Amino acid sequence: MKTKRLVLFASGSGSNVENIIHYFHNSTKVTIASVLTNKRDAKVIDKCNRLNINALYFNRNAFSKTDCVLDIVKALQPDLIVLAGFLWKIPRNLIQTYPNQIVNIHPALLPKYGGKGMYGMRVHKAVKANNETETGITIHYVNENYDEGAIIHQAKTILLPEDNVADIAQKIHKLEYEHFPKVIEKLLNE
Ligand code: GAR
């Protein structure tokens, strides 16, 4: 059987990317075709260098105003495109070319704490400010609006009154590491 090809997009530290790479490291069924990033100095690039995974950087113009990134993605022949901490809105050309083939992870229980400007620590700060007693992760398909595509999977974690924003971030990352690769694997097997 042909190996399934994953293309990952990331903007930051890339700890989810690293976790996904490790998860599929010995797989004969899944290949990480490349990691694409919109940040020239993103830590995810160092991680890819260390792990011998292709990493490519693109700027705003290539992504949003031309077919340059689309053409690169097409050449990578992905079965699934995964946004793992990627912070730009996905342009229409990619969404139309890959309907229901782009998935995102959001660090909250959507539809709560989603939308433009809601990412990373900003989400956890808002969760803390509202004294939430639980939070979680949402893995969903990507459409043209931030955080609005169909939900594939959610997982929850309990919050204690003494949990600070860093504690919340840690609980969320733990959930992400546990669930995200398995959901990706399942989607690739459908
Ligand atoms: C993750 O928690 C992910 O859910 C979040 O960014 C973090 C990236 O961490 N994504 C968003 O907020 C998207 N709106 P990482 O770089 O360590 O994987």
What does this 3D model show about the protein?
A seven-stranded mixed sheet has the order 3-2-1-4-5-6-7, covered by helices on one side. It is built from seven helices and seven strands. The two termini are 14 Å apart. It has one domain: Rossmann fold (3-Layer(aba) Sandwich). The longest helix is centred in the C-terminal third of the chain and has 24 residues. The chain is of the alpha/beta class and 190 residues long. Bound molecules: glycinamide ribonucleotide. Glycinamide ribonucleotide (GAR) binds next to helix 1, strand 5, helix 6 and helix 7. The site of glycinamide ribonucleotide (GAR) has 16 residues, from helix 1, strand 5, helix 6 and helix 7.
Kindly summarize this structure in a few lines.
By secondary structure, this protein is α/β, with parallel strands linked by helices. The chain is built from 7 helices and 7 strands.
CATH architecture: 3-Layer(aba) Sandwich
- At the first level of CATH, what is the class? Alpha Beta
State the secondary-structure class.
alpha/beta
Bound heterogens, unique: glycinamide ribonucleotide
**CATH fold annotation:** Rossmann fold
Subunit arrangement of the protein: single chain
Which outline best applies? globular
The poorly predicted ranges are none
Q: Average pLDDT, to the nearest integer?
A: 97
Report the portion of residues in β strands.
15-25%
